[in-house]
């Protein structure tokens, strides 16, 4: 019998994936990585991209992920992400990542910049109030 890992992908409202796998391909800030059952325990951030995983029967599945966190402890691999989409084709999922997830990240960056500006304005006003 082949060694296997238990992969679980958690979204805010549901568990999207809960299955045994023998291989996982992920995209991290440092580049692409492959996790196998005897891989050392591992924690990493995930960038928007496509995660692949191979089941013990050899079937390969693809999931487009927004940024998230992966934790591997022994045979348990857990992924937490805000958004994920199953897909049949790598090219279709790459388009989803480019169009949806990276667009959301840009909107989030703009919102954070606007919030930072508001916070700085509040601080300035408090400083001038004290003068």
Shape: elongated
**What is the mean predicted local confidence, pLDDT?**
85
Number of strands: 10
Name the structural class. alpha+beta
| Major sheet attributes | 5 strands, mixed
Number of helices: 1
For this structure, what is the CATH homologous superfamily?
F0F1 ATP synthase delta/epsilon subunit, N-terminal
Q: Pick out the low-confidence regions.
A: none
- In the sheet with the most strands, the strands line up as 2-1-9-8-5
The second-level CATH architecture is Sandwich
CATH class: Mainly Beta
Explain the layout of strands and helices.
Blueprint lengths: L4 E6 L4 E7 L1 E6 L2 E5 L6 E5 L2 E6 L5 E6 L2 E6 L2 E6 L2 E4 L2 H41 L1
Parallel strand pairs: 1-9
Antiparallel strand pairs: 1-2, 3-4, 3-6, 5-8, 6-7, 7-10, 8-9
Keyword list:
single chain, 131 residues, alpha+beta, ATP Synthase, domain 1, five-stranded mixed β-sheet, five-stranded antiparallel β-sheet, 31% helix, elongated
Structure write-up:
By secondary structure, the protein is an alpha+beta fold. It has a single domain, classed as F0F1 ATP synthase delta/epsilon subunit, N-terminal (ATP Synthase, domain 1), CATH 2.60.15. 31% of the residues lie in helices and 44% in strands. The chain contains 1 helix and 10 strands. The strands form 2 sheets. The protein has a 5-stranded mixed β-sheet, with no helix packed on it. The longest helix has 41 residues. 21% of the residues are buried. The mean pLDDT is 85.
